[in-house]
User: Fold Imidazoleglycerol-phosphate dehydratase from Sporomusa acidovorans.
Amino acid sequence: MSRTASLERITGETAIKVSWTLDGSGQSQIATGIGFFDHMLILLAKHGLFDLTVEAKGDLFVDGHHTVEDTGIVMGQALAGALGDKAGIKRYGTAFVPMDEALAMVSLDISGRPYLVFDAALPGEQVGQFDSELTEEFLRALSIHAGLTLHVRLLSGKNTHHMIEAIFKALGRALAEATRRDERIKGVMSTKGML
Assistant:
């Protein structure tokens, strides 16, 4: 059974289409109109071995906020849809990823209880046309709509590009671990019997 979900969301500010296949090979087609954000989503797919398609059209004449946040919303919904009843998944994932001088840690639980801890002071306000503070906004939207408890911590770094890149690579790897099936797990990984 393919663990795939495709969703579309249209508002007065954005039009977002996402297709997410969990058991993929790291292939992606990303077009958000924000080059650096595209780069980060490509990295997430590659390092998570997900097949991911994202097409976002937003009010970039205002700024990138609506596009990035709404992409996080739809990606979170697609991730939740692809996971289905979450039976057999490992549930938890943690990854430490270095990117030159930067070191990021992402630890997550596909818990159904959305929560974001973002401990990352990013020194630069922008990377290309991407506002650095939108990193946290994307992660919050993703965690809420996918039902993730998500901890993100930068352990070192000076270059904002490297720091954000390490976060997205670590997110991909942590999600890959948490969404992986384990044949020993019967039902869901919870004594409550549900996630």
